[in-house]
Amino acid sequence: MPRTYRSIARTPEFTPFFAAAALRVGASTVSGLALAVLVYDRTGSPLLSALGMFGPSFAQLLGATLLLSAADRLPPRAALGGLSAAGALATLLLCVPGLPLWAVFAVLLGQGLADSLAGGVRYGLLTEILPPGDYLPGRSLLAVCAGVTQIAGYVLGGLLVAALSPRGALLAAAGLSAAAVVTVRFGLRRREPRASGRPSVAATWRGNAALLSDPARRTLYLALWVPNGLIVGCESLFVPYDAAHAGLLFAGAAAGMLAGDTVAGRYLPARLRARLAAPLRLLLAAPYLAFALEPGPVVATVTVTLASVGYSAGLLMQERLVALLPEGTQGQALGLHSAGMLTLQGVCAALAGALAQYTSAAVAMTVLAAASVVVTLVLEPGLHTSRLRVHPSPSSVRGSAQ
User: Fold this and answer.
1) What is the Cα–Cα distance from 152 to 159, expressed in whole angstroms?
2) What's the pLDDT at 395?
3) Residue 308 contacts by C-beta under 8 Å, 6 or more apart in sequence?
């Protein structure tokens, strides 16, 4: 049985690490909702609204290609603090009245590049703060934190947009990012980089190639990225589907994710984790097929909440992925997971917006949900436990990544 959340929270440095992560999630949630409303009000376009909310995800692929070697080669505290500060400044830029749309999306591109590196630094640091056996409950606690913070963030963002304006909500998001900078600076101790050598594009390419060369890791990465991304594409259409109740739908999605991650990370015995990953990925997609009937706000919220329990499949598969990683590659490997997942989310948000532009939000959500089911079924044979019992050679991968 994994350790309790309370005992994990008492681990030195975990509390400030947790707080900084919560502040960044809150900032991202509030700013994403505010920007989606701002762009939709200006353009009336479901596609541009979806890109306003999930646009930074597009830059994750570029960041994963160019920057991820830095995740193991920079001092973690300095890197996290600097990236949080960059996020605060970018959000402040989005508050400028009359900022052209091209400039809005240029800022979002920069945010995505910073976030791609921040994911690798953050989750690599988690493997240092917690002992190896505590990664799953620790990652689960962070996921629970993200779910609670997203619920609060969407509620707060909706209230701020209604009471002030989308720009007022963006200012609040910038303040949350600034608080994360302070928390990182004074709550975490200085550490040396996990790997030697200078960060470079070539080192990033070599490290990514080594990580993806193993069939077991490659299949896990695809299963972590694609079904998840397609369902986030569905979520990107909540505003055009029902603008008046979009906050409720987003909160339901966060609540379902919270419930699933809590159960998967804290209570599921090891013997059930491998068996339940595929059913949970199917649960993530199948309920969205009900949007073909264009349900009202109550039924839609219940449907979204139920489906989002399936996000816990990603937590179970991350545990498998971590077991396949050589020493010194945790930051880049987990950053690659995060960047790939967010890239697919951005791609699928754009795809969903384009489909909705020519059909309807309900039709686009149904199509993406059906695609997620198909991808899960196609990948499942490669995820059988017997095919994942590999033991990568630290020397081979470490040598390739330098």
Assistant:
1) 10
2) 36
3) 252, 253, 254, 255, 256, 257, 260, 284
**Looking up tokens 């900022």, which residue turns up?**
99
Find out whether 281 and 227 touch, Cβ atoms under 8 Å.
yes
Q: How far apart are the first and last CA of the chain?
A: 37
Determine how many CB atoms are found less than 10 A away from the CB of residue 342: 27
For the chain, residues with pLDDT lower than 70 are 1-4, 50-51, 53-58, 132-133, 147, 270, 274, 326-328, 384-402
Which pLDDT does position 285 carry in this prediction? 93
Distance CA(111)–CA(43), nearest Å, equals 22
Burial class (CB in 10 A: 0-12, 13-18, 19+), 192: exposed
What DSSP state is assigned to residue 214? Answer: S
Which pLDDT belongs to residue 396?
35
What is the pLDDT, as a whole number, of residue 304?
Answer: 94
Matching residue, tokens 């179970």? 316
Please give the pLDDT value at position 334: 80
Instruction: Please list, residue by residue across 349-367, b when 16 or more beta carbons sit within 10 angstroms of its beta carbon and e when fewer do.
Output: bbbbbebbbeebbbbbbbb
Helices (H), 130-214: 135-163, 166-187, 201-213
Task: Tell me, rounded to whole angstroms, the distance of Cα 113 from its chain centroid.
Answer: 14
Task: Round to whole Å and give the CA distance between 34 and 363.
Answer: 25
Residue 152 phi, psi dihedral angles, 5° rounding:
-65, -40
